[in-house]
Amino acid sequence: MYAGAAVAVGLFGHATPAGVAWLRCLGAAVVLLAWRRPPRAAWRGRRLLLAIAFGVVTAGMNVLFYEAIARLPLGTVVALEFAGPVVVAAVGSRSLRDVLAVLLVAVGVVAIADVRLSGSFLGVVFALGAAAAWAGYILLGKRVAEDGDGITSLAIGFAAATVVLSPLAFGTGEVWSSPRMLLLGVGVGVLSTVVPYALDQVVLRRVGQARFAVLLALLPVTAGVMGFVLLGQVPSVVEALGTLAVVAGVAVRRREVSTRPAPEPPG
Fold first, then answer.
1. Is the overall model pTM greater than 0.85, yes or no?
2. Are the C-beta atoms of residues 230 and 6 closer than 8 Å to each other?
């Protein structure tokens, strides 16, 4: 997932972040449609409307995420983005564990944001916008999962989002003149969307929700590692401590339940 994000950062010098996000959406739509070949029933009625909403929210989240990582280190953005799913998970719960989880994430987000507000206020705004979009993704993702085949719905949703967000294609200008850059742009959709989403389904079936929730806590760390290794981004002490607080909050939030969770979004 974050290897794909690192590739996307490398394209920002040739296309706008939103334009790269649109290429990711296009690449994911093409591959998913070819793979799933949605039946006619999936293209009509309530199921179609839900898939479109799901795809547009997910693609919008990707646009906000890319605008954020164009301005902030990858690990920092992922840590800020975690505010969305943790808050959604804790809403309506009064357990001490959930309160502690929200407090830890809040402390982490404030610590990271305090460091970054002076450097890139807009980057923080985009990252928190991506967090809100992730919350919407979780709510819609649960309904999509309950309605039928989540991957097929994602294929239809990304196809719709590619059309809805087509004005962003104007920001891809230089990419179309280079087959290599175009291939990288479409490849980002495969790396950051198709492969991670499919792997999520395998992991969820094998380990269940409780262990999967713990594994989610590794994402800010893996994003930080990829940012350091591939992009040379070194976090400050405060950013590192803030990221660890977010990781701790996600780990604390896990609960032993038997219901199937909403899928984790592509980052």
1. no
2. yes
